Prior knowledge:
The protein is of the alpha/beta class. Helix 7 crosses helix 11. The protein is globular. The longest helix has 16 residues, at 109-124. It has helices at residues 9-20, 56-59, 76-84, 109-124, 139-149, 168-180, 199-210, 221-228, 234-247, 257-262, 269-275; strands at residues 2-3, 26-29, 43-46, 64-67, 89-93, 127-133, 154-156, 162-163, 188-191, 197-198, 216-218. The strands form 3 sheets. It has a 7-stranded parallel beta sheet with strand order 3-2-1-4-5-6-9, with helices on both faces. The chain has a two-stranded parallel ribbon with strand order 7-11. A two-stranded antiparallel sheet has the order 8-10. It has 2 domains: 2-135 and 166-191, NAD(P)-binding Rossmann-like Domain (Rossmann fold), CATH 3.40.50; 139-162 and 196-252 and 267-280, UDP-galactose 4-epimerase, domain 1. It contains 11 helices and 11 strands. Helix 4 links the parallel strand 5 (89-93) and strand 6.
Amino acid sequence: xxxxxxxxxxxxxxxxxxxxxxxxxxxxxxxxxxxxxxxxxxxxxxxxxxxxxxxxxxxxxxxxxxxxxxxxxxxxxxxxxxxxxxxxxxxxxxxxxxxxxxxxxxxxxxxxxxxxxxxxxxxxxxxxxxxxxxxxxxxxxxxxxxxxxxxxxxxxxxxxxxxxxxxxxxxxxxxxxxxxxxxxxxxxxxxxxxxxxxxxxxxxxxxxxxxxxxxxxxxxxxxxxxxxxxxxxxxxxxxxxxxxxxxxxxxxxxxxxxxxxxxxxxxxxxxxxxxxxxxxxxxx
Length: 284
């Protein structure tokens, strides 16, 4: 099984899940130096999605691919064509752009890219499974950990917006299961956590895990835009603000897909926060 995005949040965890299941694993990394974080059992290949021919050594002899797209869109067609010439199955980490909930219906350039890749995969006839995680629980580390570590107030827009954070470990476990087990070809899964929580409530949950109260203060959208300058494209910032704004007063969209596939309930955000408490105080 070849895992792309092998050192990323979901890809790295999927590797562990595959190894635990006794599945031989190959990892595709953009830079050879990042391979030091991978288990010794993993066969590591260096490749670049923007250079489709560089994937040839990693694909030769592979049976399936976990595709995490981490590149501009220009080479997507050539990469998918190359996958189809080597493997019989692909599990694609997409986004919930088809989900009937206003949170996921905002203009989103990444969703457009994902939809295009899905069409390319479908056109090849590959056995494919599409995974659509909602808001990853680990996003909160990038958003709020810097303020929490320094004892500052957590300031954020749309504190009343509700999401159902899904644990990265559950997404990775689903990816691994659908990659090495039969029976998931043609399936399309929206992956969510088990409960709807406002963003302000998520901060409270993190505070409980740290055994201290965290202050939350509402930030205006314009303040968020200013704060995000230089750290995120304006299109992404606009998409997030539109999504959070649309989610206010709307319970988050929740599915049973994680439990249906794994046979165990998805981890709660409280479980995730407890397991990652030190990351909010000491860093990753």
